[in-house]
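Async update (no meeting this week)

Hi team, since we skipped the sync, here's where things stand on the single-chain job. The sequence we agreed to prioritize is pasted below, unchanged from the tracker. I ran it this morning and attached the output directly underneath so nobody has to dig for it. Comments welcome in thread, and please keep replies under the output.
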Amino acid sequence: MTARPQTARPQTVGASALRASLDIRVVVSRLRRRLMEVTDAEDITPAQASVLMRLGKGDVSTASALATAEHVRPQSMAVTLSTLEQLGLISRTPDPTDGRRQIIELTAAGRRRVAGAKRAGAEWLATSLQTQFTEAERQTVIAAMGLLERLVS
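Output:
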């Protein structure tokens, strides 16, 4: 049996850190869902839209890599990819280094779809920030984003 490496004991976390942690997770989750609602068309599922957006980041991928990234079983990803292929949004080609795998890429229609979804999400968010927040509140959001960026860097 191998010994597990010892990790430093976590410091006591204060109430404000716990509250901030919860608030961030809740808001980010709700914002993500709202952006998906705004950008998803009715002919695809949220899971299919998520795969398209992931591929739209410029990554060429495989079904197994997508399944891992999306936290789904390979069988579920196969169904998702089959539908996206039938809709003409992705293409599959044999992996030149491993004949058992296929490379998944967006088609031109898939790239247009992703670009439109990104544009719709950006427009919704900018319009919502403009109409629902004051200039001072928008500046506070900008400052908060800088702090969150520091957290993940």
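Quick observations from my side:
The first helix runs from residue 15 to 39.
Helices lie at 15-39, 46-56, 63-70, 74-86, 108-132, 135-152.
Reply here if anything looks off.
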